[in-house]
Amino acid sequence: MKKLNKKGLVLAFVLLLAILVGLGGFMYYRSGLEPVSHVENPIEFEISEGENADQILKNLKDNYIIKNELVAKLVMKQKGLSDFKAGTYTLDKSWTPEEILTVLNDPNAAMSNQVSITIPEGYWAKDIAETVAENTNVSAEELMALWNDEAFLDEMIAKYEFLDESIKNPELTVALEGYLYPETYFFYRETNARDVTMRFLDEFDRNYQMFKGQLEGSEMSFHDLITLASVVQFESGHPDDMKLIAGIFENRLRDGYRLQSSVTVCYALYEYDSWLDCEQNYEVESPYNTYMIDGLPIGPVCNSGIDAIEAVLNPTPSDYMYFIADVYGDKTVYYATTYEEHLANIEQYLNY
Predict the structure, then answer these.
(1) What pTM did the predictor assign?
(2) Where are the domain boundaries for CATH 3.30.1490.480 in the chain?
(3) What residues does the record give for site: Important for catalytic activity (predicted)?
(4) Where are the alpha helices (DSSP H) in the chain?
């Protein structure tokens, strides 16, 4: 009887182990069948002449288009989807492995339903909305409304760690200004405002994860940091100047000076014909106008890129307190330590 009991225990253990292995394998397989993303996320993918199935599946995995090479290979064999065609395809990370493999087996798969949209650094939210509207079925009005929609903002604050209650200040012109990351995107021509916005925020989050370690010990809130970065971005497009300008703003904030940045006047006006309008209307009442308020604007004045953010995180130390950009010439930035030097630069380079 003891021998039988021992054999029974061994058999039970082996059976349990087989069940666990089988269950684990099933879960592994099921997970590999799921798409990488649950929101639309178009991406270009190229198959070169001579690439074999293993190379193609590895490239799909390396580009985060599929979760699992082995599961995709099983799908490929089960469905007979191994006749890959060389060429450039537009795939989507929200597709299943079978959907992706089906497209890659179709030599007529085209990009006619896709559009490439480049958002330059320094664009305002309204510029971004108009650019998207020009290339898709989503109107600028839809996007602008969503970017100020309280319920949507609450949902995004819960989803993204870089967003907080600061974006719900009713005095902000556009709540998500500053967080619509400038980059080149592929969108479906037929899409919706929510998916477009999520792409911008996902890209912001991807970059945020790379620099968030530098935020430890910062005396600024993240919203203030992005606000200052937007002013730096608006003032200059060159990384070296950005770091010097960020350092000047740091000096002015430290010593109790107002920032007195003309770009904040531009945003306060929101509509203007020329740069001169921004220079001549510095008394406009607005929580964005740093000629009229102490400290930073209430929120970002454009959507800045990584260089401007890095400039605020790592400004170049100097004794400068003033600067001007030759807006009528080659955009060179001229710096000054004293107000008298600053006035001389204005007289020489701007002459108004």
Answers:
(1) 0.72
(2) 42-104
(3) 235
(4) 2-33, 53-62, 69-79, 97-104, 125-135, 140-146, 150-159, 193-211, 222-235, 239-255, 262-269, 275-280, 306-313, 339-345
